[in-house]
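Known limitations

Structure tokens in this collection are predictions and should be treated as such. Users comparing against experimental data should check residue numbering before alignment. To illustrate the layout, the record for 4-carboxymuconolactone decarboxylase is reproduced below. The input appears on top and the generated tokens appear beneath it.
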Amino acid sequence: MRLKLLSPGEMNADQKETYDEAISGKRGAPPAPMMAWLNSPDMARHATRLGEQLRFNTIFPAKLSEIAILVTARHWTSHYEWFAHKRLALKGGMDPKIIEDIRDRRTPTFDDPKGKMIYDLAKSLHEGKGVSQALYDEAVKVLTERGIVEVIGLCGYYTMVSMTLNTFEFGLPEGEVSDLG
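Generated tokens:
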């Protein structure tokens, strides 16, 4: 870990206010990258609010949102992000084979057209740096424009999370080993 994470007793007033807001939210605990972001308390506050919105309040159930998050974690080879969201994806009902395929950089087989479209959008955003007209047109039909915006939000936010976790070398919990090679 490249950064000393502050305990609540070491935080200044702005940092503590952001920390307290995060733990009183739907997560019940501070998201790991927020502990690094607290070096910029206002950024931490806004980023954590955005993360809560994207995790809990999109039009997608967790099973679908986690597709975009796992594609992002895999794209960035973010070990901590993968570890955390693999568990959330399984808890949300995602087929373990889909998780395995994303981990191994294979295109999964989806039984839900929305899941396939979220995967295709996320892959295109990360690898193609955009979306073709044909993919966009199909995504509007399958996900709606709001859904496209929310997939972009998920990929963008979790890119920032992955960059933070990778830059500061957040480790996995004691005894855990990364699935990512």
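For this record: Residues 58 and 83 are 22 Å apart (CA to CA). Residues 62-168 form a domain with the AhpD-like fold (CATH 1.20.1290.10). Please report discrepancies through the issue tracker.
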